[in-house]
Specification:
Elements: H1 3-31, E1 33-36, E2 39-42, H2 44-51, H3 57-74, H4 78-101, H5 110-131, H6 134-175
Antiparallel strand pairs: 1-2
Helix pairs in contact: 1-2, 1-3, 2-3, 2-4, 2-6, 3-4, 4-5, 5-6
Length: 177
């Protein structure tokens, strides 16, 4: 196999892997639900956070944003899709950047907690804007803090198990042509 075929094969593998991860985020967001008193929590943020421990920040911005925005469109929340793209894209970006740049032990929890807080802030501001009511924004902040921090705690608990497996998968795909 010559050099150009090697690059093409690697690109095809990466596109397939990104597509698989994007589908995983979308489907887990749509169907990975934990019922709570006033609705449900989705596990899509946990998937974004875990993938961000291995994938580059720029990739995570796109994967998290596009997949979560697509879930909003498919779940009939199109008014949130653009905002979700930005919020979830930045969530993945923040975790990826912080996870790579922090040292243990803060690396094991701080990126996830910051991302969980960002989810609450982002959606609180979006709801205040959409409904033109700061009271709704504050209420949304509270609900989304539960969503964000639940996802963060799950990512913290699972990262020791999942991150090494994702790292191995990523290295195999990224290095083999």
């Amino acid at each position: 196999m010559d050099w150009s075929e090697s690059i093409i094969m690697r690109s095809i593998r990466l596109i397939a892997l990104y597509g698989m991860f994007m589908a995983m985020i979308t489907l887990v967001t749509m169907f990975g639900m934990i019922p709570i008193l006033w609705g449900y929590l989705n596990l899509g943020d946990t998937v974004i956070m875990l993938l961000a421990t291995v994938l580059p920040a720029s990739i995570m911005f796109n994967l998290g944003g596009i997949a979560s925005g697509l879930a909003d469109m498919l779940l009939a929340y199109p008014q949130y899709a653009l905002f979700t793209f930005l919020i979830k894209g930045l969530e993945g970006f923040f975790v990826a950047m912080l996870f790579r740049n922090l040292k243990p032990p803060t690396q094991r929890f701080l990126p996830f907690l910051i991302a969980g807080f960002w989810i609450a802030v982002g959606y609180g501001l979006v709801d205040a804007f959409l409904y033109q009511n700061w009271g709704i924004g504050v209420t949304s902040f509270g609900y989304n803090a539960i969503q964000g921090f639940t996802s963060a705690f799950l990512a913290i608990a699972l990262s020791g198990i999942i991150t090494p497996k994702l790292r191995k998968l990523w290295q195999n795909i990224a290095t083999h042509a």
